[in-house]
Structures are given as C-alpha cells and as structure tokens.
Amino acid sequence: MSLLETDGLTKQFGGLVAVDDVSFAVERGETRAVIGPNGAGKSTLINCITGALEPTAGTVQFDGEDITDTSPHETVQTGISKSFQTASIFPNMTVRENVEIAALAAEHGSFRFNFLKRLSDFSAVHETADEMMDAVDLLGDAGVEAGSLPYGDKRRLEIAIALASEPELLLMDEPTAGMSPDETADTVDLVERLQEELGLTILIVEHDMEIIFRIADRILVLNRGQVIADGTPEEVQESEQVQEAYLGGVEL
Ligand SMILES: Nc1ncnc2c1ncn2[C@@H]1O[C@H](COP(=O)(O)OP(=O)(O)OP(=O)(O)O)[C@@H](O)[C@H]1O
Ligand SMILES: [Mg+2]
Questions:
Q1: Is residue 113 predicted with pLDDT exceeding 90?
Q2: Rg (CA), the chain
Q3: In the chain, which residues fall in CATH 3.40.50.300?
Q4: Atom from ligand 1 closest to the CA of residue 174
Q5: Which of 124, 153, 232, 241 has a 20 to 30 Å separation from 219 between CA atoms?
Q6: Confidence tier at 200 by pLDDT (50, 70, 90)
Q7: Ligand 1, atom 2: closest residue by C-alpha
Q8: Residues by chain with Cβ below 5 Å of ion ligand 2
Q9: Run of H or E residues at 120
Q10: How many helices (H) and strands (E) does the chain have?
Q11: DSSP state, 174?
Q12: What is the C-alpha to C-alpha distance for residues 175 and 154, in angstroms, rounded to an integer?
C-alpha cells in the first residue's frame, strides 16, 4: 500500500479547474516531486492534501485511511506535516521555543496547552526539539531569537517546526524560493539528509529543475491542473508533453 494516494482529486475555483482529476501515489521513503509551469495547480494540490482546501471531487488516502475531509490540524496528527513559509515563526521567541511549541501543539491541538502535563512529557518535547534542531543544523542557535536569524536559517527553522510533529510525510512547497545559491545548496543537502537519516517520505514542489532531477525519485508533472507525466526523472525528461509544456518543444 502506498503511503499517500489521491484518486480523481479535483479542485475548482468557480469556472477554473485548478486541479483536474489527479490520481497519483507517494511510496514510503521516496522523495516525490511535483513540477509544472506557473499556475499548473501544484500548490492547490498540496493544499487539498493537507486539508487547507476542500477538494471539489476525488479522495486522498494516507496510510490506507481516507483523509479527504480532515482539517489541516487533524492531518498533522495523522502524520503529514507541511513546511510553511516564514509566517509560522514567532519572531520574538527563541529557535528552541518555536520548535517546542510546534511539538506541543502537534500532541495537543493548537495551543491548548495542558499545564498539568507530566514533567516527563515535557522532557520528551525537549528531546524532540533537540533532534529536529540538530537535523536542520540549528542546534547551535537554539537560544537565538528566531526573528534575528538570516533568511536561509529561518527557512530551515520552518522545516524543523514542520518536523516537530514527527511526521511520516513532509510536504514542501518551493522550499528554496527566495534563497541565495548557497542557502539553496544547503537546503537541498538538508532535504537529502532528511530522507536518508530520518527515513522521511517527502513530497516537494520545486521550480529549480536541477534540484528536482538531483533529489527526486519520481516526478509528477502538472499542466493546467492535469497530469501530463508521472515517472522517474529520466522518463519525465523524455516526455514530449513535458518538453512542450515547459519550453514549447525545446529539450530540457
Ligand atoms: N484561492 C483561489 N481562488 C481562485 N483561484 C485560485 C486560488 N488559488 C489558486 N487559484 C488559481 O488556480 C490555479 C492554480 O494555482 P496554484 O497556485 O495551485 O498553481 P501553482 O502550480 O502552485 O503555481 P506557482 O508555480 O505559481 O506557485 C491558478 O490559475 C490560480 O490562479
Ligand atoms: Mg505554487
């Protein structure tokens, strides 16, 4: 059984079919990429999976369970986490506090802290935070105010926050957007390490073809909401439809 599977997933915004009958699967342990031109429906697809958007039709299954109608908060508790852009960071709190809050929230539902929780549970939260800060190389900055981190570190903190719920599947929507070449290279290394060392399954939307072809095991290609290719990087690269969608027939 695949870890994640969509069947006929469709999202309409009025007359616009942003995601059109998309069926695809993500296998355990793989790095799965979604690519496509601007407006192809990549973010909408991801948002239908997290429950941020309600699909017009079709289903989403995670680990054999139907999660089509679950809210983003419930989705996190089933084991799917999305790395959001810097909006989810509390700038006046430390790196550690940001990650610990995310770990607590994942356990208890957003911000309904139970102050009667046993102390041993807090040490588990502390340990999870240590592990996730270490995974993104921010352990040395644990005490730093999050707002004062450089841009690339903030984006890695975002990833640590997403990891704090200890997901099986990590969703990333253009994690390198706005990064310098150095920050981009670090982030790509990080994504590779997360898959290898934490055994994470990753579903990533990314514009940079070089990155995609380097890290993806399989690639789903969308154009105008529809699947135009789905396969290994080699298979996708050879697809005429993909070449046309991207570059009007020029080879990738
Ligand atoms: N909330 C919304 N209301 C109406 N239309 C929307 C909404 N969100 C997205 N769309 C439209 O749906 C289509 C798909 O958008 P989406 O953001 O999923 O594309 P994308 O592949 O992520 O593009 P990009 O590469 O620019 O991030 C676009 O035509 C977009 O304008
Ligand atoms: Mg997008």
A1: no
A2: 18
A3: 1-79+167-252
A4: 27
A5: 153
A6: very high
A7: 13
A8: 42-43
A9: helix 119-135
A10: 9, 10
A11: S
A12: 11
